[in-house]
Design goal:
The protein has a single domain, classed as YVTN repeat-like/Quinoprotein amine dehydrogenase (Methylamine Dehydrogenase, Chain H, 7 Propeller). The chain has a four-stranded antiparallel sheet. A hairpin with a 4-residue loop joins β14 and β15. The longest helix is centred in the first third of the chain and has 23 residues. It has one helix and 28 strands. By secondary structure, it is mainly β.
Length: 341
Protein backbone atom coordinates (compact mmCIF):
# COMPACT_ATOMS: atom_id res chain seq x y z
CA UNK A 1 0.00 0.00 0.00
CA UNK A 2 2.90 2.35 0.76
CA UNK A 3 4.26 1.88 -2.75
CA UNK A 4 0.85 2.59 -4.25
CA UNK A 5 0.49 5.72 -2.10
CA UNK A 6 3.88 7.00 -3.20
CA UNK A 7 2.99 6.29 -6.80
CA UNK A 8 -0.27 8.17 -6.52
CA UNK A 9 1.40 11.11 -4.83
CA UNK A 10 3.94 11.22 -7.64
CA UNK A 11 1.17 11.22 -10.24
CA UNK A 12 -0.68 13.96 -8.38
CA UNK A 13 2.48 16.03 -8.04
CA UNK A 14 3.15 15.69 -11.76
CA UNK A 15 -0.44 16.69 -12.55
CA UNK A 16 -0.21 19.73 -10.28
CA UNK A 17 3.12 20.73 -11.83
CA UNK A 18 1.68 20.33 -15.33
CA UNK A 19 -1.38 22.41 -14.43
CA UNK A 20 0.84 25.11 -12.95
CA UNK A 21 2.91 25.28 -16.14
CA UNK A 22 -0.27 25.51 -18.21
CA UNK A 23 -1.76 28.22 -16.03
CA UNK A 24 1.43 30.29 -16.26
CA UNK A 25 0.71 31.03 -19.93
CA UNK A 26 -1.37 34.17 -20.24
CA UNK A 27 -1.81 37.55 -21.81
CA UNK A 28 0.92 39.84 -20.50
CA UNK A 29 -0.16 43.07 -22.15
CA UNK A 30 -1.56 44.92 -25.14
CA UNK A 31 -0.05 47.74 -27.15
CA UNK A 32 -2.59 50.10 -28.72
CA UNK A 33 -1.31 51.16 -32.16
CA UNK A 34 -4.42 52.33 -34.00
CA UNK A 35 -4.46 53.26 -37.67
CA UNK A 36 -6.57 52.07 -40.57
CA UNK A 37 -6.21 48.92 -42.62
CA UNK A 38 -5.85 45.22 -42.02
CA UNK A 39 -2.70 43.28 -41.28
CA UNK A 40 -0.91 40.07 -42.12
CA UNK A 41 2.49 38.69 -41.10
CA UNK A 42 5.12 40.15 -38.76
CA UNK A 43 8.71 39.64 -37.61
CA UNK A 44 10.70 40.51 -34.49
CA UNK A 45 14.33 41.64 -34.39
CA UNK A 46 15.24 40.49 -30.87
CA UNK A 47 18.49 42.47 -30.91
CA UNK A 48 17.11 45.89 -31.82
CA UNK A 49 13.83 45.20 -29.96
CA UNK A 50 11.84 46.13 -33.05
CA UNK A 51 8.71 44.40 -34.36
CA UNK A 52 7.81 44.80 -38.03
CA UNK A 53 4.10 44.44 -38.80
CA UNK A 54 2.64 44.44 -42.33
CA UNK A 55 -0.45 46.66 -42.59
CA UNK A 56 -2.03 46.69 -46.05
CA UNK A 57 -0.26 49.72 -47.57
CA UNK A 58 2.68 50.04 -45.17
CA UNK A 59 5.07 48.34 -42.79
CA UNK A 60 4.79 49.54 -39.18
CA UNK A 61 7.77 49.35 -36.83
CA UNK A 62 7.15 49.06 -33.07
CA UNK A 63 9.35 48.87 -29.97
CA UNK A 64 8.47 45.44 -28.53
CA UNK A 65 9.29 46.49 -24.96
CA UNK A 66 7.24 49.69 -24.81
CA UNK A 67 4.74 49.45 -27.68
CA UNK A 68 5.97 52.79 -29.02
CA UNK A 69 5.73 53.31 -32.77
CA UNK A 70 9.25 53.74 -34.15
CA UNK A 71 8.41 54.41 -37.79
CA UNK A 72 6.88 52.99 -40.93
CA UNK A 73 7.64 52.21 -44.55
CA UNK A 74 4.79 53.43 -46.78
CA UNK A 75 3.93 52.87 -50.42
CA UNK A 76 3.07 49.16 -50.34
CA UNK A 77 0.11 47.41 -51.95
CA UNK A 78 -1.28 44.44 -49.99
CA UNK A 79 1.75 44.01 -47.76
CA UNK A 80 1.96 40.40 -46.60
CA UNK A 81 5.31 39.02 -45.49
CA UNK A 82 8.40 40.53 -43.90
CA UNK A 83 11.79 38.98 -43.22
CA UNK A 84 14.96 40.32 -41.59
CA UNK A 85 18.62 39.84 -42.52
CA UNK A 86 20.43 41.40 -39.52
CA UNK A 87 23.90 40.47 -40.80
CA UNK A 88 23.36 42.85 -43.73
CA UNK A 89 21.22 45.31 -41.76
CA UNK A 90 18.43 44.71 -44.26
CA UNK A 91 14.78 43.81 -44.18
CA UNK A 92 12.46 42.73 -46.98
CA UNK A 93 8.70 43.16 -47.24
CA UNK A 94 6.39 41.80 -49.94
CA UNK A 95 3.97 44.05 -51.80
CA UNK A 96 1.52 41.58 -53.28
CA UNK A 97 -0.64 44.06 -55.16
CA UNK A 98 2.12 45.19 -57.51
CA UNK A 99 4.36 42.11 -57.57
CA UNK A 100 7.41 43.50 -55.84
CA UNK A 101 9.54 43.23 -52.73
CA UNK A 102 10.88 46.33 -50.98
CA UNK A 103 14.29 46.14 -49.31
CA UNK A 104 14.85 48.52 -46.39
CA UNK A 105 17.63 49.49 -43.98
CA UNK A 106 17.15 48.12 -40.46
CA UNK A 107 18.89 51.14 -38.90
CA UNK A 108 17.31 54.01 -40.80
CA UNK A 109 14.05 52.19 -41.68
CA UNK A 110 14.31 53.69 -45.17
CA UNK A 111 13.67 51.78 -48.42
CA UNK A 112 16.86 50.97 -50.32
CA UNK A 113 15.57 48.95 -53.30
CA UNK A 114 12.43 48.01 -55.22
CA UNK A 115 12.67 44.45 -56.50
CA UNK A 116 10.26 43.24 -59.18
CA UNK A 117 9.64 39.57 -58.46
CA UNK A 118 9.32 36.90 -61.12
CA UNK A 119 5.85 35.80 -60.08
CA UNK A 120 2.42 37.03 -59.04
CA UNK A 121 1.25 38.16 -55.60
CA UNK A 122 4.34 37.67 -53.44
CA UNK A 123 3.20 36.78 -49.94
CA UNK A 124 5.26 34.94 -47.31
CA UNK A 125 8.97 35.74 -47.03
CA UNK A 126 11.90 33.70 -45.70
CA UNK A 127 15.62 34.21 -45.16
CA UNK A 128 17.76 31.08 -45.50
CA UNK A 129 20.98 31.71 -43.62
CA UNK A 130 22.84 28.73 -45.13
CA UNK A 131 22.49 29.99 -48.71
CA UNK A 132 22.41 33.64 -47.68
CA UNK A 133 19.35 34.33 -49.82
CA UNK A 134 15.82 35.64 -49.39
CA UNK A 135 12.77 33.78 -50.69
CA UNK A 136 9.54 35.50 -51.74
CA UNK A 137 6.74 32.96 -52.18
CA UNK A 138 4.40 33.98 -54.98
CA UNK A 139 0.87 32.87 -54.09
CA UNK A 140 -0.53 33.92 -57.46
CA UNK A 141 1.84 31.90 -59.64
CA UNK A 142 2.93 28.88 -57.56
CA UNK A 143 6.56 29.90 -57.48
CA UNK A 144 9.31 31.39 -55.35
CA UNK A 145 11.54 34.30 -56.34
CA UNK A 146 15.02 33.96 -54.84
CA UNK A 147 16.67 37.29 -54.00
CA UNK A 148 20.39 37.85 -53.47
CA UNK A 149 20.74 40.39 -50.62
CA UNK A 150 24.18 41.38 -51.89
CA UNK A 151 22.68 42.79 -55.09
CA UNK A 152 18.98 43.07 -54.23
CA UNK A 153 18.19 41.29 -57.48
CA UNK A 154 16.28 38.10 -58.26
CA UNK A 155 18.86 35.34 -58.68
CA UNK A 156 16.51 32.45 -59.47
CA UNK A 157 12.88 31.39 -59.79
CA UNK A 158 11.65 28.09 -58.41
CA UNK A 159 8.47 26.50 -59.73
CA UNK A 160 6.35 24.99 -56.97
CA UNK A 161 3.82 22.15 -57.30
CA UNK A 162 1.09 24.08 -55.50
CA UNK A 163 0.10 27.39 -53.90
CA UNK A 164 2.72 28.40 -51.32
CA UNK A 165 1.94 29.58 -47.83
CA UNK A 166 4.47 30.02 -45.02
CA UNK A 167 7.94 28.50 -45.04
CA UNK A 168 10.78 27.46 -42.74
CA UNK A 169 14.51 26.79 -43.11
CA UNK A 170 16.59 24.11 -41.38
CA UNK A 171 19.74 26.25 -41.42
CA UNK A 172 21.56 23.73 -43.60
CA UNK A 173 20.32 24.68 -47.06
CA UNK A 174 16.91 23.05 -47.01
CA UNK A 175 13.77 25.19 -47.20
CA UNK A 176 10.28 23.84 -46.53
CA UNK A 177 7.05 25.48 -47.65
CA UNK A 178 3.39 24.58 -47.09
CA UNK A 179 1.33 24.03 -50.24
CA UNK A 180 -2.14 25.14 -49.24
CA UNK A 181 -4.15 23.74 -52.14
CA UNK A 182 -2.39 20.35 -52.10
CA UNK A 183 -2.17 19.77 -48.33
CA UNK A 184 1.50 19.05 -48.78
CA UNK A 185 4.92 20.36 -47.83
CA UNK A 186 7.54 20.95 -50.50
CA UNK A 187 11.25 20.58 -49.73
CA UNK A 188 13.56 22.95 -51.62
CA UNK A 189 17.31 22.62 -52.11
CA UNK A 190 18.35 26.25 -51.62
CA UNK A 191 21.66 25.79 -53.43
CA UNK A 192 20.22 24.00 -56.45
CA UNK A 193 17.10 26.23 -56.60
CA UNK A 194 14.70 23.35 -57.07
CA UNK A 195 12.07 21.28 -55.31
CA UNK A 196 13.53 17.91 -54.33
CA UNK A 197 10.54 16.36 -52.50
CA UNK A 198 6.87 16.83 -51.70
CA UNK A 199 5.23 15.19 -48.71
CA UNK A 200 1.54 14.73 -47.84
CA UNK A 201 0.33 16.08 -44.50
CA UNK A 202 -1.90 13.15 -43.64
CA UNK A 203 -5.32 14.31 -42.48
CA UNK A 204 -4.18 17.94 -42.20
CA UNK A 205 -5.98 20.18 -44.74
CA UNK A 206 -5.15 23.61 -46.17
CA UNK A 207 -1.86 24.20 -44.32
CA UNK A 208 -0.83 27.78 -43.61
CA UNK A 209 1.65 28.50 -40.80
CA UNK A 210 4.87 26.47 -40.62
CA UNK A 211 7.55 26.32 -37.93
CA UNK A 212 10.62 24.15 -37.43
CA UNK A 213 12.63 22.62 -34.64
CA UNK A 214 15.86 22.67 -36.63
CA UNK A 215 17.91 20.89 -33.96
CA UNK A 216 15.70 17.80 -34.05
CA UNK A 217 14.39 18.09 -37.62
CA UNK A 218 10.73 18.52 -36.79
CA UNK A 219 8.23 20.53 -38.85
CA UNK A 220 5.03 21.95 -37.34
CA UNK A 221 2.36 22.68 -39.93
CA UNK A 222 -0.95 24.24 -38.84
CA UNK A 223 -4.02 23.48 -40.90
CA UNK A 224 -7.55 24.75 -41.47
CA UNK A 225 -9.24 21.64 -40.08
CA UNK A 226 -7.97 22.29 -36.53
CA UNK A 227 -4.87 20.14 -36.69
CA UNK A 228 -1.14 20.64 -36.28
CA UNK A 229 0.78 18.04 -38.28
CA UNK A 230 4.27 17.22 -36.99
CA UNK A 231 6.61 15.88 -39.68
CA UNK A 232 10.12 14.47 -39.74
CA UNK A 233 12.07 16.95 -41.86
CA UNK A 234 14.41 14.20 -43.07
CA UNK A 235 11.83 12.02 -44.80
CA UNK A 236 8.42 13.70 -44.46
CA UNK A 237 6.89 11.10 -42.15
CA UNK A 238 3.89 12.38 -40.20
CA UNK A 239 4.79 11.78 -36.55
CA UNK A 240 1.76 13.28 -34.86
CA UNK A 241 -1.49 15.14 -35.40
CA UNK A 242 -2.26 17.58 -32.59
CA UNK A 243 -5.63 19.35 -32.03
CA UNK A 244 -5.50 23.14 -32.29
CA UNK A 245 -8.02 25.97 -32.64
CA UNK A 246 -9.80 26.83 -35.89
CA UNK A 247 -8.64 29.28 -38.52
CA UNK A 248 -4.87 29.21 -37.90
CA UNK A 249 -2.58 31.32 -40.06
CA UNK A 250 0.70 31.45 -38.16
CA UNK A 251 3.09 29.15 -36.35
CA UNK A 252 6.25 29.60 -34.31
CA UNK A 253 8.73 27.39 -32.45
CA UNK A 254 10.82 28.32 -29.43
CA UNK A 255 13.92 26.13 -29.26
CA UNK A 256 14.65 27.19 -25.68
CA UNK A 257 11.36 25.83 -24.31
CA UNK A 258 10.51 23.20 -26.92
CA UNK A 259 7.14 24.85 -27.48
CA UNK A 260 5.35 25.18 -30.82
CA UNK A 261 2.62 27.82 -31.19
CA UNK A 262 -0.46 28.01 -33.40
CA UNK A 263 -2.28 31.36 -33.58
CA UNK A 264 -5.93 30.74 -34.37
CA UNK A 265 -8.70 32.95 -35.67
CA UNK A 266 -11.21 31.54 -33.18
CA UNK A 267 -9.64 33.46 -30.29
CA UNK A 268 -7.13 30.89 -29.06
CA UNK A 269 -3.38 30.43 -29.06
CA UNK A 270 -2.56 26.71 -28.93
CA UNK A 271 0.78 25.85 -27.30
CA UNK A 272 2.19 22.39 -28.07
CA UNK A 273 5.15 21.06 -26.09
CA UNK A 274 7.73 18.74 -27.60
CA UNK A 275 8.49 16.32 -24.75
CA UNK A 276 11.03 14.62 -27.00
CA UNK A 277 11.36 14.34 -30.80
CA UNK A 278 8.61 11.72 -30.98
CA UNK A 279 6.16 12.86 -28.29
CA UNK A 280 4.06 16.04 -28.35
CA UNK A 281 1.18 17.32 -26.24
CA UNK A 282 -1.04 20.37 -25.93
CA UNK A 283 0.33 22.44 -23.08
CA UNK A 284 -2.22 25.25 -23.11
CA UNK A 285 -4.91 27.06 -25.06
CA UNK A 286 -4.65 30.74 -24.21
CA UNK A 287 -7.56 33.09 -24.90
CA UNK A 288 -6.79 35.81 -27.45
CA UNK A 289 -8.90 38.32 -29.37
CA UNK A 290 -10.77 36.72 -32.27
CA UNK A 291 -8.93 36.96 -35.62
CA UNK A 292 -5.51 37.27 -33.95
CA UNK A 293 -4.21 34.63 -36.32
CA UNK A 294 -0.62 35.65 -37.14
CA UNK A 295 2.33 35.41 -34.79
CA UNK A 296 6.01 36.10 -34.18
CA UNK A 297 8.36 34.88 -31.47
CA UNK A 298 10.52 37.29 -29.48
CA UNK A 299 13.66 35.17 -29.09
CA UNK A 300 14.95 37.30 -26.21
CA UNK A 301 11.94 37.15 -23.88
CA UNK A 302 10.40 33.96 -25.35
CA UNK A 303 7.08 35.79 -25.51
CA UNK A 304 4.94 35.75 -28.64
CA UNK A 305 3.33 38.75 -30.33
CA UNK A 306 -0.02 38.64 -32.12
CA UNK A 307 -1.61 41.53 -34.03
CA UNK A 308 -5.29 42.05 -33.22
CA UNK A 309 -8.19 44.44 -33.62
CA UNK A 310 -11.81 44.77 -32.52
CA UNK A 311 -14.59 44.09 -35.00
CA UNK A 312 -18.24 45.02 -35.27
CA UNK A 313 -21.13 42.83 -36.38
CA UNK A 314 -20.93 41.37 -39.88
CA UNK A 315 -23.35 42.93 -42.38
CA UNK A 316 -26.18 40.87 -43.84
CA UNK A 317 -25.16 38.53 -46.70
CA UNK A 318 -25.96 39.57 -50.25
CA UNK A 319 -25.86 37.78 -53.58
CA UNK A 320 -22.60 39.53 -54.45
CA UNK A 321 -21.15 39.09 -50.94
CA UNK A 322 -22.52 35.87 -49.44
CA UNK A 323 -19.91 35.79 -46.64
CA UNK A 324 -19.33 39.41 -45.63
CA UNK A 325 -16.58 40.20 -43.16
CA UNK A 326 -17.28 42.22 -40.05
CA UNK A 327 -15.86 45.75 -40.14
CA UNK A 328 -12.82 46.59 -38.06
CA UNK A 329 -13.53 49.21 -35.41
CA UNK A 330 -11.58 52.45 -36.00
CA UNK A 331 -8.18 52.70 -34.29
CA UNK A 332 -8.65 49.38 -32.48
CA UNK A 333 -5.53 47.76 -33.91
CA UNK A 334 -2.78 46.66 -31.55
CA UNK A 335 -0.25 44.01 -30.54
CA UNK A 336 -0.95 41.33 -27.96
CA UNK A 337 1.90 39.91 -25.86
CA UNK A 338 1.52 36.37 -24.51
CA UNK A 339 4.06 34.56 -22.34
CA UNK A 340 4.98 33.22 -18.95
CA UNK A 341 5.96 35.53 -16.15
Amino acid sequence: MKTIALGLSGVLAAAVASAAVTQDWKELGRYALGGAGGWDLLAVDAGSRHAFVTRSDRLVVVDVDTGKRIGEIPGLQRAHGVVLVPSRKRGYVSSGGDDRVVAFDLDTLKPVADIAVTGKSPDAMLYDEASGRVFAFNAGSDSASVIDPATNKVAATIALPGRPELAASDGHGKVFVNLEDKSQIAEIDADADKVIATWPLGSCEEPSGLAIDAAHGRLFSVCANKQMAVLDAADGRVLASIPIGSGPDGAAFDAASGNAFSSNSDGTLTIVHEDDPTHFRVLANVATPARARTIALDAKTHHVLLPFAEFGAAPAPTSSEPHPRPPMKPDSFGLLVVGRQ
